[in-house]
Input
Amino acid sequence: MRFPIRVLAGSALLGVLTAAVPVAAQVPDENALPNSTLAIVKAKSASDLREALGRSQIGQLLADPAMEPLKDDVRARLGELENELQQRLGVSLEELLETPQGPAWLAVTRRDDVLPIAVLLVADAGQNADRMNDIMTRGTDQLVKEANGQSRTEEFQGKTLTIIQPPAEDSPPLVWTNEGSVYFIGVGVEGVKDLLANADGREDSLAASANYQAIGAKLGSDSQICWYIDIQQALQLVIQAAAEQGGEAGQAEALLRTLGVDQLKAVGGTVDLATGDYDSISKTFVYAPGPRAGILRLVQMPPIAATPEAWVPADVSSYQTISWDLDAAYTALGDLVNMFLPGAIENVERGLQGPGGETIRFQQDIFTPLGDRITILSDFEGEGAEIDAESQRALFAVELDDEQAFQTTLNKIFAITGANPKTRDFQGTTIYDVELPELPAAPGAPQMQLSGNVSIAIAKGYLFATGRAPLLEQILRGGGSSLADDAQFQSVASKFPDQVSTFAYNRPEEQARAVYNTVTSGQFQEALDLAGNAGGADVPDLSELIDVEKIPEFSVFAKYLTQGGSYSVMEDDGLMIIQFSLPKGN
Output
């Protein structure tokens, strides 16, 4: 019963992944959708997107002859699906994937006062229109036959609507029609009719929405894939659904306003492959205009220079840093807590006292000495086949405005918690090695013991913490090359603006090597089995999904791994986030 639904929806949903922003006149665009649209995903051209994927590093990897044994194994395991597709729809999986040709989009809409929502998809099959018609016709027959549904047709504005009603009368029907090579597919008759009736545009359209226009102004609309979510519409849908179940909609709306969530208007993004200087690039913009209020005050990220700290080694495999006004965050947190639980923070402070009378005042002792920058980096011990998941070393660092004041705070924390760390001197810096405690477990569950120590130090204007002391010692020792001066980092950093709120850099080869070695050595399956045994759950057998022996040498993958980075910039009306990877030759 489920398979035909997936086939019908899947053949259409392929347009979401392989279709586009409507550019042809016969494909309705955002002017045809109501301004109550919750979300839309659109792409520019199925064929262009497939070509871009082929040019990308992942596409080149898949086309490498060394991948053929693995691809043949995957094809063999998909044989049952392939046979079912042939029997039910008369096409192979490859033909199904290649059916969409032109622009398409998928949208979720509703009227202001009506549930449920409608799901609509428009896809241009181009020269494959006849194949698409066969897929939809045969899929309709299979759905009616196997799901015991009913099919009927209805004429609407010169088009024949095929309506498939599931046996349950309260279930919305699946509807499809076409105009030439353009196919309209939806859940719910009224939603499809509304789209067709307004195909030439409407006054209160999504395109005319202030939120949609704001996202479009930030991101443009010419990318291979674009997406948009109206956060306020989504929240209203949740509130409305809760009210249908007997909840109090007015109280929920008041709470959202109190928390400042009503300032989050919308979020949208774009994705492009093998374009310009990038192997891939995605952009996301969170639209939140107006002065920050409520929980949004917790995250204020002043601009900083896109330069790693001088103590960051050049050979790290990943690096990320965030500028975060922690003083403002604490003030906002205090206001929120006092709004709901007046005096709660002070009560917690009064309960924190060490054996010698030590006390902690959160703002004075913790947040005031802290700076506004948090950094996380990682690298790997060993080389080549020695690298696995256990080889990764990570370090956490927080900038300090006042090292001496936070040293006093750290001593208080040790006294209050009874941590009793081992202390040692390393080139003039005190390192505190704190033994990790045994974690409490739920009844019947095994005890969890974290292995090793956490090494903590205050130096170079930062508070450092890591589970791998040699990494901390390397940073304290200094003297080596820094990431800021590394040529590979600089090639990525050349894509950063001068001032950012966050930025990150990664070298994927060591991380990919760790995953590769973990899978091919059997460690991944062992970890799954251990997790399943501890939780009493069944875990998948990796050998049923893929023949590990067919995975080529790591050198095959390494040829296509590329460096990348990301950054974000907090603006007056929201947050822009950019993620990208560079072509191999860059």
Remarks:
- Residues 129-147 form the longest helix (19 residues).
- The radius of gyration is 28 Å.
- DSSP finds 21 helices and 24 strands in the chain.
